[in-house]
Amino acid sequence: MLKLAAALLLLVAVAQTAPAKNRVLVLLESPAAKQTYSIFLKSLETRGYVLTVKRAEDANLQLFKYGEFVYDHLVIFAPSVQEFGGSLSVAEITNFVDAGGNVLFAGGAKLGDAIRELASESGYEFDDDSTSLIDHHNYDATVDSGDHTAVLVDPKHLTKASVIIGNKAAITAPILYRGSALVANPKNNLKLDVLTAATTSYSFAPNKVVNEYPSAIGRSAVLVGALQARNNARVVVTGSVELFSDAFINANVQKVGSAAKPVKSGNGPFVDALSQWAFQEKGVLRVKSVNHHLVGESAPPRDYTITEDVEYSIEIEELKDGKWVPYTGKDVQLEFVRIDPFVRTFLKPSNGKLTTVFKLPDVYGVFKFLVDYHRLGYSHLYDVQQVSVRPLLHTQYERFIRSAFPYYVSSFSMMIGVVLFSCVFLYHKEAPKAVSTETKKAK
User: Fold this and answer.
1) What is the rounded distance in angstroms from the CA atom of residue 351 to the CA atom of residue 349?
2) What are the structural domains, with CATH classification, of the chain?
3) OST48 N-terminal domain: which residues (predicted)?
4) Which residue, among 112, 107, 110, has the nearest Cα to 124 in the 3D structure?
5) How many C-beta neighbours within 10 Å does residue 22 have?
6) Full-model pTM
7) What would the pLDDT profile of 53-96 be if each residue is shown by its tens digit?
């Protein structure tokens, strides 16, 4: 009986800590490859994900069934696959992302058409066939086979968005990378360059004479790229499937020519942080509540009146460690918009909410309280509250306006002047004129 109770408690605890969307499809080139990535896959299971591992060419592959998701996330570690099995295709994966699914996939030195096409749909392109990232100054002395393709990437080349890579202090060792380089599409505004190569790196076929300018060189060579779609679905692409392998995670790396002792590579914490962001365990925002009202009141009125003082508050939550906590960002802006913004102001954290007080413009019409929050690595937050702003009623206007006092004075002075002139004109009698002696004699 005690064992049954303990088992039930364990199930409840797992259910509370497991992600709400925890079904992951992992595609490999062969079933034996599962052992190659056992540490990474084990970390996903530890975080509560339910993994389904299949061959990339399995005839029963499908992401949708009866219009519903079969899986919530997709991982592809099959760089050389030419076509996916079953109903799975690049078009279906694109529809999966459009419907809100998340995808993480990796390439390698040998690439199939399927992975190339999928990368192109994600805003990146792999370099030419048989090319690899090469760095003659930053390669591992123990893993490299002599062609300098086992490149060590300094953590300083990671993106500055800590929400994607986690705590940068946790990734202090170099990241071991071997594979292709990516070239970003400059016209894609949704892409994020997570990890770029050093300035001494370039992409070319190993052990061949460099007789032309490489297409990816220095910081333009992207090693790990990401994309957050407009519906907040996430895609992560890298040119190195070995980045996630047990051999690279456990490798003790040492830069060639360095006198320092070998250290464990930074691949472990890096791929964990990367998968957490890709599967929306962090960097996710939501609006819990919105409130707006006149200053001194608590409920919104039927409509507002021009020039009134309004208090606006919004409660935004961020997903951290599986729990929703208040988001206290100081760069969230509120816009009061009719066609163009009439008011734009920052929201200040206060008691777990973001608030502001402002005066309504002296313009009436239909307005919107608009919060449109875009920040690197965070999900897009958009909230609109529509309100009406009316002009003053005839009983609300001031009886006397200070700015009109000169006109009041001029009006009354004119009235007084007219009265005085009328009095003078009506009641003033002209004195009789004196009659001359000649006039009297004539009479």
Assistant:
1) 7
2) 19-278 (3.40.50.880), 283-443 (2.60.40.1930)
3) 23-278
4) 107
5) 17
6) 0.81
7) 999 999 999 999 988 889 999 999 999 899 999 899 999 999 99
